[in-house]
Design a protein that fits this description.
This protein is an alpha/beta fold. It has 19 helices and 14 strands. Strands 2-1-3-4-5-6 form a 6-stranded parallel β-sheet, with helices on both faces. Strands 7-10-11-12-13-14 form a 6-stranded parallel β-sheet.
């Protein structure tokens, strides 16, 4: 059997870092971890090829070669996914589809030959058994949750890892919290399910054997959802693994703000090699936090929580939302002030959307306020429901926020605020390699000479070089990120 696994194209977004990747000569930020894991679940004797459309074009000859094209996609990839399916149908190659897009909206894809939905550890074997028996069904679905201890290692050999900026790995699924706009618990439940420590170390061994050195992103929706297992098993083992190999990786992940309440956990994360965490902060408004059920963020000084996490050597990347029913005209300036004061350099500010099946979706549907499905990109200036605030006032306020926080004066000031509060655990000396030199040259030309705001760029670079040289590489990274964020939001507003 010949299988072509395809990850559809993703439009330019806040997180794909398209404009920043040019500084380090990479094609894409992350490989499609889910599809590489699915590939490992297929029979070993099958012939497998892989196309990540963020890296390379999908050819007709590649489709014609395959007996089946396997597609996995998120909502933001829906347009590309539809095009791929149309091409496969035209060339008479059968399609097997799964992943969040198809699980949430499978009724839109009746032309797909086989829909393998929910978690593949459960539904894919059912499809494979029926395929072997010659009677595969159109749709496979389940309400069961997978045992991650049965999840195989991703087939890294199918991709060229050198074309990516980061590698990815998954430790757990689920989240113990129930924010009403989030579809994580809808897809994966509130009960945390984890892989074993041995599984994680085996996956890291695999990346190490493929000669990967650099950033590894734990894609978990809430990495600290099971603190006991982390503190007693995984993180001590990670520390030992990293120390023996002289810290070949740098980890980052997503987690909740209650990390700030646990000094021991922050200490362990930093010593295991984590240097950045993404936290859903959403809003400094207690009323809006009540509205969306984000109780873990309530009744705390959010700026103090952020700065405490930073003081343990962890960069805090933050998610923020505008468009809550309780938002008003002063919300925009208040959010700008919060972001600047916190020193959150990578601040993703998006408009509230209601993904299918979430509590927010049902609440707005009952109020006849739903307009359409969400695009999957909460930073593209679109909303899929009628907000309480005047729509144009909200859009103008949103433009003001992102236009301000990513303008060079505000952005570089925020970097300095963060650097002055950061105490990195891994205090390695900056020893530039050839790639660093190439990055520095590109950075100096594009940001230090050609770009507006170049005086702020040079102030940051020179301060880092003379005062905190171990932060120079991070300073160049932040400068490239700022370039990407400004360019991305400019593309949106000028579209």
């Amino acid at each position: 059997m010949k299988i072509l696994l395809v990850s559809p194209k993703c439009p330019n977004t806040f997180w794909n870092l398209k404009h920043a990747l040019r500084f380090i000569s990479k094609k894409a930020a992350l490989p499609p971890l889910g599809l590489l894991t699915v590939a490992a679940m297929l029979p070993k004797q099958w012939d497998k090829r892989f196309v990540d459309m963020a890296i390379e074009n999908l050819t007709d000859s590649g489709i014609e070669w395959a007996d089946y094209v396997f597609i996995s996609a998120m909502f933001i990839q829906q347009e590309s996914a539809k095009t791929v399916i149309e091409r496969c149908k035209k060339l008479q190659t059968k399609v097997v589809a799964g992943g969040p897009l198809f699980t949430s909206a499978h009724e839109y894809f009746d032309d797909v030959d086989h829909l393998v939905l929910n978690e593949a550890e459960i539904t894919l074997p059912l499809f494979l058994d029926d395929l072997k028996a010659g009677c595969p069904k159109h749709i496979y679905t389940t309400q069961q949750r997978a045992d991650l201890k049965q999840t195989p290692l991703p087939l890294w050999g199918l991709v060229d890892i050198n074309k990516y900026a980061l590698m990815s790995i998954q430790y757990s699924r689920g989240c113990p919290f129930s924010c009403d706009f989030c579809d994580v618990t809808l897809l994966f439940g509130r009960k945390m399910r984890t892989k074993t420590t041995d599984q994680i170390l085996a996956e890291l061994d695999g990346l190490y054997a493929h000669k990967w050195r650099g950033q590894v992103f734990f894609v978990d929706d809430n990495f600290i959802g099971n603190k006991n297992h982390l503190k007693n098993e995984l993180l001590p083992a990670l520390i030992d693994w990293m120390e023996k190999r002289k810290y070949p990786f740098v980890f980052n992940t997503q987690l909740s703000i209650n990390l700030a309440d646990d000094d021991e956990l922050m200490h362990l994360l930093a010593h295991a090699g984590f240097d950045a965490v993404f936290v859903g902060i959403e809003t400094p408004s207690q009323q809006s936090l009540d509205e969306c059920g984000k109780l873990q963020n309530k009744n705390r000084d959010l700026v103090a929580s952020v700065k405490k996490i930073q003081s343990f050597g962890l960069q805090v990347q933050g998610g923020f939302i505008l468009g809550f029913d309780s938002d008003h005209s002063s919300t925009f300036e208040r959010l700008i002030t919060f972001i600047q004061k916190s020193g959150i350099v990578t601040a993703m500010v998006g408009l509230l959307n209601a993904p299918r099946g979430t509590e927010l979706y049902h609440r707005l549907s009952r109020a006849n306020r739903m307009l359409k499905d969400a695009s999957g990109d909460n930073t593209d200036f679109s909303m899929n429901f009628v907000p309480v605030m005047n729509y144009q006032e909200l859009i103008n306020g949103y433009k003001k926020v992102v236009g301000t926080i990513y303008s060079p004066p505000y952005y570089y000031e925020r970097v300095m605020t963060f650097f002055k509060n950061l105490q990195p655990v891994q205090k390695k000396k900056f020893r530039p390699c050839l790639r660093d030199i190439k990055t520095l040259i590109k950075s100096m030309w594009l940001l230090g000479i050609k770009a507006e705001g170049r005086s702020y760029y040079w102030k940051l670079v020179l301060w880092s070089f003379f005062r905190r040289p171990q932060l120079l590489r991070l300073a160049l990274t932040f400068a490239a990120y700022g370039f990407h964020f400004r360019k991305t939001f400019s593309d949106y507003t000028n579209a």
